[in-house]
């Protein structure tokens, strides 16, 4: 009944092996195609599936098949099964430079949580008012990975990276106008951050930012034998 | 003897009316043309003339005609007559984000001084170490105009503008590599600065930055009758 | 009741210290978020707050909370409290190259007035008819700062700067088509203006242009002791 | 002896039919190839041939074969036979915005002359000093076609077009730095000129500008029967 | 009653001096502003006025005031008074590479006619079928100026210029998709045309192309004394 | 002795399986690295190896190890063993728009020959003189694949594709200046060619163009059972 | 009755000579123009005509005239006469990297079929899961030409080309967001593919990709006498 | 003696607090300035200092002051004190797509080692030959962070990320030509990687890539209490 082979090739087995949720990128898919994929997903409740960049029509199509799916409209994200996994590994902190960056920041936050991390959100701390960043230093310094979401000048990730020792994943957003060029300005700023410790994902890619942060903050795998910090 | 009409049309009278030095942009001119202009300039010692973007060859050509001309090779600038005018108006502070931004910053500094302003230089205060900016806050807050020179991510002007009430003139530099795109990244960052109070000049245009700061910090003209701040 | 901490962190205290109105950038915020901020603003009638880039929906949300707010739909601007402060400092002149540049020019004009400057507007004086610019020379020469708003070729700021000694803040607009590239052509023209004394803000950023002009034309601060123009 | 068929296919017959000189674009050709072409040209003294963008090495190679060829090193141009044809048709005026634009302007000037037009050069009349343009209005208004050569902001062609009724051919140059982007800024400005009557050729293409102006100012062809301006 | 000074400064006197119609660029103006300008225009029936880039709303506003205005919706153009001037000077030929280029081509055609030229249109002669261009050679060779309108690869103007001796005004259009980049590809092609004799106006600027062609094909002005082609 | 594993991993076995020569891209490699690879190649005389983009230093390094290697300096290409394989499959024709495009065209030509195709070169047939293209139609129509190499406006591939039924591989070159943008203009033109049947490779990538043409013109593989054109 | 000469010049004779269907590019044409062309097409049932980039309105206009026309809405394609020609020549395989690339892939598939090739489609085999590509290797290696359709990173064509010896036609799509820049990222990736054997057509140009593949896989023409692979 | 305050403001204390080496970016600094900084560094042998992007002249200047400094000319890197710290934390694997990417890859490798990680290098594993990547899967899967360095199409990081569960830091390089646009193509590819788990640093920024990988693979800090993976 859920023959989707004409337009998609789900690889839930690969997902199981790699250990992270499957993600269905809804943009460019018809609601009918998304519904078909949702039906295939329903057969595999042991794997968490995220539906990203889902419009209201996409969401309706998913929930017609998976009525209990979690849905955050501002982040354009659905998840099924809806339960957030219990948290493992280090802490992820997501920082949104401005109110308009919130949708992308929430996509990062929820992705990190559905990948099994404890994740928190800090809002409206742009560099125009440094004291606002500085007031969150304690929290930032407890993070194993920090996602910084910013549009316009995109200056915040470099400033944060200079203050902490954890890696910073910078997510440029298309917030802004004119010479912001739909996020290009923020993207270039972040790629040229003076402080080391900043890596960048695609413009508005909250999913990618949250995913990477969750990978960084993952608990040690048993099969990997890390060198230990020597005593002292 | 100094017939330069085949390639230039000096307008020293306009310079006198407008009240600022004449500037000779040397790039793209032959040393011979620059020497011819220098000879014409020699007839008008009452006007300060700046030679900008002067290579060593240009400088040699100028000093062959005007041996006492001031020359700062790092800023690629000459001035004649060499004496710096006595300072008038408000203070100008020039801030260089990194050591590599120094040539452009010095061009701004010297331009502001030859336009008659008291001007000071602060060096190596990039946003990767915020405490360095913060340690100069007192000086920055005394300025009537601040010129911030930065390459790479170009984030410093927006941070400075958020800390002071004077206008910030941002000068992007071509310092950096890769996605710095010869200063484009810094330029876009500055145009998108989240803090109001930032305006931008061309990449590496220390002359333009210093000139504008000097205009901003100019003493009130007698013919202009500004509204006064009311008592209290 | 006005708990906005989930999406914004108003810093009216900083506004007080820096001496300029707080600005709320509405683009990218929901009307609900803007209404929440307006409610927070209502508690602080001693600070002028500007709402910029406000759509009709944003404006409705603001006026539901602050019914007496000033609203200029063409400039997409609201202000509260609505009274314009009494004018201090030097005069600001805003010049619009064409009729289509008016919305941005009005945003600059109103911003300068709400920052406490006397500000006037000159309309439709593009370089295709030089006599139109020249007919306003007297007014332009009385300004402490001139804002020039232009789209298409963006040539006007350079022409104006060559005629006056006050600083020119150039605001490129997205007026035009084809190789105007949404304001990029005008932006580049302005950055390359041959006359010194031009600095540029973001495309369509009337708020930024008016803000900077107001800072430049600000009355001398008591704590700053400028050098005086010597007699003669 | 002059077998050049391995690398070029001269079409002097076509040149004769179309009525304009043949042009050999030297950039990218080896001096040996240029010499071979010069030898082929020598067989056809009834056709004027221009060698454009010729380096010193190219020029030496041409003059080894055609010792009496005309050579203007600043314009990187050679012509053979060297005699300028007697002038026909309307007048061409070439305007160079700055001294650094002279090489391109001279290429335009010489091209127009070798195509058989009376052509004159006006130098250093940038828009930063409008009175300089205005002082040449009489000459500009006598032209049948005006070539305006400008780098940096490229604003001059639009200003000139607003003052005259003849067509303006705009030649952007790579003069400038930073956001001039090797002539891109001037190119865009010229494409967006507010005054109608401006068309643009490639950056630094003095040859193209002069050629087009010469075509515009060509005398009426006997085979074309233009409509006559009615009496009165 | 027609006080438009708050948003426009019509300069019909300049139009009279320069000898060409006034043009009102409607894009970016409100219908109300356009109506106001139309009312001002109504006072001056001795001057032809073109309204360019007029939407249906703009057109309705114009015709409410000037009911007999000529209107070509596909070219988005209105003219008043509606009568086409009697033709003078040389012939203008407008060539449209494809059917989709017709709106821009018609704007050029009508502009040339309202400037007083005999103008004809040739349609759908792209370079993919050379015989189609070649079949119009006779007409093309009778033109004093040719306007070539093309999108996509923009190759046609260079091909036409290689076939005729009259100047070619190339008008790139935004026809195409993907790497056509809204006309940028065609624009660059035209700027790099291998055949001399091509100059370019802005993307989709049929008005500019037709205007320039009309200037080129203008009858000799009595005050200009061209050199005559010698007998023989 | 030829341990190159620290910097390269030659895969001659894969080359054998795929049936085409191995290619060593020399740019960015030190002459020492290239020499090391040449020594490894020497062990495998049954596989043709091409060294592309080889400077004089690279060529010297190769020939120190493989003294009999074929070397075409203008194409910056070496081949070893030097013998050209006997020709199989269909004919390849390489067309160079101008003399300056010859180095890239020769790289394509030689690559096609070393891949086992009969390949011929046609030179200097730009669209500015259509009769030159048309005079080669017979040869072009005999080709199984045509490589068209062109810089500047890049218009030739679209014209050729409209004349023949074989596929056209377009190779843009960096020949040109100004708005040619190092080959970008030609690249965009080719991507937007109006005639179907044009595909594009990287700027200056003669190797890629020749390789693809050779693949297209390859003889039928025995394991592939093509459908046959029915009789009649 | 079908006089379309005012806006189009169908060249069905050329189509017959070249041996491929005529294609009508509907974008930018009015439904009325498309209907007129359809009526002209109806007179020539011996030629297959494709209508590409047809909106629902275009399709309705075509089917009003040609009721039995084939229509694939997802590919925005119509064909008339509707019968697919019997397959000749080699096999074409079309590969779509993701579900969202399907519309473009189907346009390629149908074009190849209407040009007379056997063509098959493989879906959702992006490089993020290599085993999916590898599972189709047998089919890919039977193809005479492979069309690879991919958006986002556009990495798939290079991977496929490394696995097979047939030519790969890469079709970048505008699928993606942010720094995908409407297909520019995928386009650049494909132009820089490390494996030789990849050529690229315009973004979203499924028609061009399918057309080229069909040309490559065409049966040998009787007039061309290819060299035969020698026995062994 | 080592007064460098005129051009630099070393912050070794901050380095100590953050726990990573200080880095001196040499590009744009004079050898004299670098020597001055080296002298200041000499006072602080407890902090590792890296000198990046050091030309031969820079290296000579450093070693005149710090004769025992480690120097890798291909990576343009120096380190002092020269001893590599003992390895802690997880393993870092650096992958270079091609031989030409080696200098950047070595910069990443050495940076990771000087930050205290065990780091290994894999060379020449581009996607054109997938089996080469696949042959290193075991090593890649043992890494806590993988740095993938690639120019041209930049496709490798996305392929690697699809095969492992550790985060991938992608470093685009300027290797390539034409439409590689100095690394822009690779940068865009990486930002659009279809597989999640890829973040990008600046073009040629091996230092940044190695630094970030070292941060990711850092041993758990005692003050951070990560959630533990539950048993089973």
From TrEMBL, chains A, B, C, D, E, F, G, H:
Which organism was this protein described from? Paractinoplanes globisporus
Could you tell me which SUPFAM superfamilies the record lists for this protein?
N5-CAIR mutase (phosphoribosylaminoimidazole carboxylase, PurE)
Q: Name one Pfam family in it.
A: AIRC
Where in the numbering of this chain does the PurE domain appear? 90-222
Can you say what this protein is called?
Nickel pincer cofactor biosynthesis protein LarB
Gene3D superfamilies to which the protein is assigned, alphabetical: 3.40.50.1970
């Amino acid at each position: 009944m859920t023959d989707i082979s004409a337009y998609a090739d789900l690889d839930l087995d690969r997902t199981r092996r790699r250990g992270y949720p499957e993600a269905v990128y809804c943009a460019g898919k018809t609601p009918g195609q998304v519904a078909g994929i949702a039906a295939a997903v329903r057969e595999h409740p042991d794997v968490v599936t995220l539906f990203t960049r889902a419009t209201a029509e996409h969401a309706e199509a998913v929930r017609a098949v998976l009525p209990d799916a979690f849905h955050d409209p501002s982040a354009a994200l659905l998840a099924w099964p809806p339960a957030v996994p219990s948290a493992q590994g280090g802490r992820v902190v997501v920082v949104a430079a401005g109110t308009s960056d919130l949708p992308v920041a929430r996509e990062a936050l929820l992705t990190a949580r559905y990948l099994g991390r404890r994740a928190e959100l800090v809002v409206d701390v742009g560099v125009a008012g440094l004291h606002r960043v500085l007031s969150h230093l304690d929290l930032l310094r407890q993070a194993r990975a920090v996602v910084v979401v910013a549009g316009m000048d995109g200056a915040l990730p470099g400033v944060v990276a200079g203050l902490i020792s954890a890696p910073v994943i910078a997510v440029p957003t298309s917030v802004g106008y004119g010479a912001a060029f739909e996020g290009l300005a923020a993207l270039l700023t972040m790629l040229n951050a003076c402080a080391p410790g900043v890596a960048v994902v695609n413009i508005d890619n909250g999913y990618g930012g949250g995913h990477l942060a969750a990978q960084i903050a993952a608990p040690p795998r048993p099969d990997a034998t890390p060198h230990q910090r020597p005593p002292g």
